[in-house]
Specification:
two-stranded antiparallel ribbon, Porin, disordered N terminus, 16-stranded antiparallel barrel, 2 domains, mainly beta, 5 helices, 14% helix
Amino acid sequence: MKKKLLIMVLVLVSFMGFCAVKGWAGEMDILVNKLVEKGILTPYEGQILKAEAKEEAAKELAAGKAITAPSWTQRIKVKGDVRFRTQVDWQDNHDNSNGSRVRNRIRGRLGVEGRVNDQIAAGIRLVTGSDDARSTNQTLSDDGDGTFGHPEAHLDKYYIKWMPELPNNLGNATFWGGKFSNPMQKTELLWDSDITLDGVGAQFMSSSFNLGDVSTNLYSNGGYFWLLGDQWTKGDPMLIALQGGLKMDLIKDWDAGLNMGVAYYDFTNVQREGRDFTDALSRQGAGTNTFVPGTTEFEHDYNLVDFLIKYDSKQFFDLKMGHGLYTDLIWNTSPNNDNFGVIVGGYLGDKKPKKPGQWKLWGNWRYLERDAVPDYLPDSDFVGWVRETGASSGGGTNSQGFNGGIQYAILKNTVLCLEYYWMDPIHLDSGVPGDVEPYQLLQLDIKTKF
């Protein structure tokens, strides 16, 4: 009876809110330890009680219902990350000279999102780097004057998010307006992970249903995104994106899931006469797509069909080993000859290492023809080649090669990463010297998240 009474007192204290959540959690631990010392609770019972109390407090805080914490702290989420990278690029140039460089680069990101009410949230994110849409890296001491100048920083997200209340049997939906993360299921064959989109976007996930004996959800994503706005023209360059697919709990005992999706991307008003709008899009590099001679206008239109398959599992038969496979095929349906792209890859280990000792080993091979996608969108680290000159361009098309690496979590939310790229041109014109060598890149990172 005495034990039950003391436990009831502890529970009552947790709801009285005499102090903030973190402080209450510390007091809770002290009280439970005292009960264990006096023999009222066993050590095992003490650990269970502390774990259950912390779990309940975390759930209430996440739901904005923790009476012991100020209400504004429950409406605001702050998260960020910092990455330090040493990067080595090298290539044997076609003039028989050796080219290489070593750079130390830093990336910092800080995001804040606040709940306005039960359905509306708003957020912003501050990042390092220039206005390059595909990079938030800041190369250390790159100002050239040796004065330890301040790096650039800017906002890459600012949005309003609407999460309407739908009937439980229908599913859930999210809508964005502003500049926000890409809502599409994707790989870096088409989308660099740093790109945030301008316009309006949406995601929908149905409630679960059985397809045979397999639990399944249908999803759809899409958006209407501005490539170049506020122009006195017949039509601004825009991107209309639509995607549909399904996610299946394929093997429950393995926690294995399958994701299959089909997307259509319509880049409107990107092929027309009398306008050098691609420069205004701040394209990076030498430009690897096909252009109208003497201009920076695309010679071909871009209407892409994208077919994506991803498989992830945390077990393989009796072996507790996370693993995954994926492929992404892209076809530009507009008339041209270089309109296909594909990536095939996989991994072993934890999909996102974050706890000490977790690791991941991965690799992929990709092939991206010259006009398969606009060259300002794919992974900026996977270089492309200008067909007429043989010049390499940081991020682009007309490229094939391998990317792989290993990650290892040395501490909580602290991960070491070693990544390697090997890239080669697909086609070069006959006038280009035939000894253009592959481009190679090595990155050593330490990543932290908070």
